[in-house]
């Protein structure tokens, strides 16, 4: 039986690359949405195109592709093809480094397809780690070779104009040996169809973009902000599966590893594309990327909150149906974060970075959470916040309460942020009856029966029931901030 080898490739340094600034002289539009979208699409498509191009160049069957996407790929090769595969990936790695000014690197590990899957995976990970920590060790003298770097302006033009603007409407993507680190819309020696569902001969890619007012291009963040409810503001939503790596490490064979990887990738690419095309989202959000276990979307602030809740609901159903035979909670929950731009003309990359920091806070606080409007909430508490928001906005609209009362309610949380009780500068215990008396001063006036019911409900939800001491719920602050944005003109 001919010798078989497994080759696993990884793309490193993507976060720093996405956050790197554009070349000088670019317009704000190109330096923002198009450039970040183009860089994201380049990383996503590289993981799909490189393994397919490798098999095509070696004259091997498409079935040898194990998994691809999410910053890595896995292929099965005959042992005789090892040297050719190394040369192929070496050429691609050099141009990838050139285009990214050294920020992005391609590393790969090769091992015999012999033994238990846990042992094979360990050998691959060890080789990948060795190349990550000592990139020049495998190619002596490489550090003394002349290095020709593509200019930033030239690379940004490729990412912003050729990818960011064209991939969203392209029918297919191509690759050519003359530019092994590039993917090109509509042309190349080897081409693959871009699809929104799993196809044996195509590349699955989520690329929805909210249309501009004239429908001829993607909407800018300023346009998306204007389409939001209440205050004109936009933001970025990022999500990541909790302990996804642990879930993959627990599989017992490559026959389990590959379908599981494809399953997650298909969920994010397919479900997000469908969700974003629904009437309540299609004009308000644009997809930056979807990966093997994460995603990023930007758009109107209110649409992002609704989209996050819907993605979490679908993901919960997805894991219940597809992972019921896998023990443990790893890979079955998802955490997200929403970062809002402090002003309309704020750089998209800066808000994307802030969303990443907020996502780290949510994942470090607990699993299956969302960071929203300054607080980390469990998903079930987000439903409570949505209900409270509806109550508060009803008080504003139906009973003509001044928006000033929102700021007064928010001040109840002032001292809690420093470990004290609300309206208690001395830090003494805040009794429930005293809190309710001060709360009633804020919501005083009409004796309408429905108004009294709403006020009682709001007190109970903010301060908790059956408690002698007040401990304001985090969901209450999120609800008040949510209502403030929704009612602000």
Question: What are the key terms here?
Answer:
489 residues; alpha+beta; Alpha-Beta Plaits; six-stranded mixed beta sheet
Summarize the model shown.
The protein has helices at 14-19, 28-57, 82-99, 117-133, 152-164, 221-226, 244-249, 254-276, 301-322, 348-365, 379-398, 404-410, 432-442, 449-463, 474-487, and strands spanning 4-12, 65-69, 72-78, 105-112, 172-176, 179-185, 190-195, 202-204, 234-241, 285-290, 294-300, 334-340, 369-372, 375-378. The chain has 489 residues and is an alpha+beta fold.
The count of DSSP E runs of length 2 or more, i.e. the number of strands, is: 14
CATH H level of the largest domain: which superfamily?
Reverse transcriptase/Diguanylate cyclase domain
Class inferred from helices and paired strands: alpha+beta
User: End-to-end span in angstroms?
Assistant: 72 Å
Mean pLDDT: 81
CATH class of the largest domain: Alpha Beta
How are helices and strands ordered from N to C? EHHEEHEHHEEEEHEHHEEHEHEEHHHHH
Strand content: 15-25%
Q: Given the structure, what is the number of helices?
A: 15
- Give the C-alpha Rg: 26 Å
CATH architectural category of the largest domain? 2-Layer Sandwich
Main sheet: strand order = 10-11-9-12-13-14
Shape: globular
Counting structural domains, the number is: 3
The low-pLDDT segments are 25-30, 138-150, 415-435, 467-471
Give the biggest sheet: 6 strands, mixed
Under CATH, the topology of the largest domain can be stated as Alpha-Beta Plaits
- State the share of residues found in helices, binned by percent: 40-55%
């Amino acid at each position: 039986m001919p010798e078989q080898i497994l080759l696993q490739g990884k793309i490193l340094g993507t976060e720093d690359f996405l956050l790197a600034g554009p070349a000088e002289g670019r317009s704000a539009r190109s330096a923002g949405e198009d450039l970040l979208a183009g860089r994201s699409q380049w990383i996503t498509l590289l993981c799909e195109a490189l393994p397919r191009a490798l098999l095509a160049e070696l004259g091997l069957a498409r079935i040898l592709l194990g998994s691809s996407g999410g910053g890595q790929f896995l292929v099965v090769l005959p042992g005789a093809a090892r040297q050719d595969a190394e040369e192929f990936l070496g050429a691609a790695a050099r141009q990838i480094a050139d285009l990214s000014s050294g920020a992005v690197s391609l590393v790969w590990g090769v091992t015999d397809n012999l033994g238990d899957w846990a042992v094979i995976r360990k050998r691959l990970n060890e080789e990948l780690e060795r190349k990550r920590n000592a990139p020049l060790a495998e190619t002596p003298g490489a550090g003394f070779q002349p290095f020709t770097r593509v200019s930033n302006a030239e690379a940004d033009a490729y990412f912003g104009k050729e990818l960011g603007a064209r991939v969203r409407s392209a029918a297919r993507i191509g690759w050519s040996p003359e530019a092994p680190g590039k993917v090109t819309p509509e042309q190349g020696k080897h081409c693959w169809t871009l699809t929104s569902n799993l196809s044996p001969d195509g590349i699955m890619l989520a690329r929805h973009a909210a249309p501009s007012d004239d429908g001829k291009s993607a909407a800018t963040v300023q346009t998306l902000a204007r389409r939001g409810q209440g205050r004109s503001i936009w933001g970025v939503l990022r999500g990541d599966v909790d302990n996804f790596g642990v879930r993959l490490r627990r599989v017992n064979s490559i026959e389990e590893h590959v379908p599981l990887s494809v399953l997650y990738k298909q969920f994010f690419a397919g479900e997000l594309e469908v969700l974003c095309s629904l009437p309540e989202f299609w004009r308000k959000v644009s997809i930056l990327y979807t990966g093997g276990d994460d995603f990023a979307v930007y758009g109107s602030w209110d649409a992002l909150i609704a989209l996050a809740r819907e993605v979490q609901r679908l993901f919960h159903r997805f894991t219940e149906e597809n992972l019921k035979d896998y023990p443990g909670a790893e890979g079955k929950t998802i955490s997200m974060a929403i970062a809002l731009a402090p002003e309309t003309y704020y750089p998209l990359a800066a808000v994307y970075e802030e969303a990443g920091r907020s996502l780290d806070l949510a994942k470090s606080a607990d699993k299956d959470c969302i960071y929203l409007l300054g607080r980390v909430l469990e998903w079930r508490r987000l439903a409570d916040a949505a209900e409270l928001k509806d109550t508060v906005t009803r008080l504003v609209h139906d009973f003509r309460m001044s928006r000033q009362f929102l700021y007064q309610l928010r001040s109840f949380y002032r001292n809690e942020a420093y470990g004290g009780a609300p309206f208690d500068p001395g830090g003494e215990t805040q009794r429930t009856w005293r809190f309710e008396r001060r709360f009633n001063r804020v919501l005083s006036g009409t004796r309408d029966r429905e108004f009294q019911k709403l006020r009682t409900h709001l007190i109970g939800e903010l301060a908790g029931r059956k408690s002698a001491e007040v401990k304001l719920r985090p969901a209450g602050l999120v609800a008040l901030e949510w209502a403030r944005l929704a009612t602000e003109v």
